[in-house]
Amino acid sequence: MLLTPIAPVFARLAGATDAQVRHDLDRLPAMLDEVDRLITQGVIGGEHLNAADFQIAPSIRMLLAMTDIAHLVAGRPAATLARRVAPAYPQIPPAMPTDWIPNPHAPRSS
Fold first, then answer.
1. Apex CA 26: angle with CA 21 and CA 45, to 5°?
2. Fewer CB within 10 Å, N side or C side of the chain?
């Protein structure tokens, strides 16, 4: 695949070190909780989609497409909004070590 040699270059340019990716994954459940809160409050996900919907939902949809972390998003209001805004999205094969992926049922630290 043509993109394979380019991916590490883009990752480095974006600051995607192993430590940063693990940190971001650890924060993901809390970030998804915030998206769900915004939906519940009607800030996003209303009858008429707004700019914030189109900014947030595609990122959530990409997470749903990532086969190794989709379970962290599935079943949430954020997942419903993401599929509403971006119904079709290609699957992204697993790319992370399984021990990096947070357990959605583990207690969260504050």
1. 100
2. C
Distance of alpha carbon 54 from alpha carbon 86, whole angstroms: 9
Is 90 exceeded by the pLDDT of residue 10?
no
Q: What integer best gives the mean pLDDT of the chain? A: 87
Return the amino acid letter for 39: I
pTM of the predicted model as reported, rounded to 2 decimal places? 0.80
Residue 26 pLDDT more than 70? yes
Asked, for residue 107, whether it belongs to a domain, the answer is no
Q: Give CA–CA dist 85/103, Å, rounded.
A: 27
* Angle between the N-to-C axes of helices 77-85 and 18-40, in degrees from 0 to 180, rounded to the nearest 10: 90
User: Does residue 2 lie in a domain region?
Assistant: no
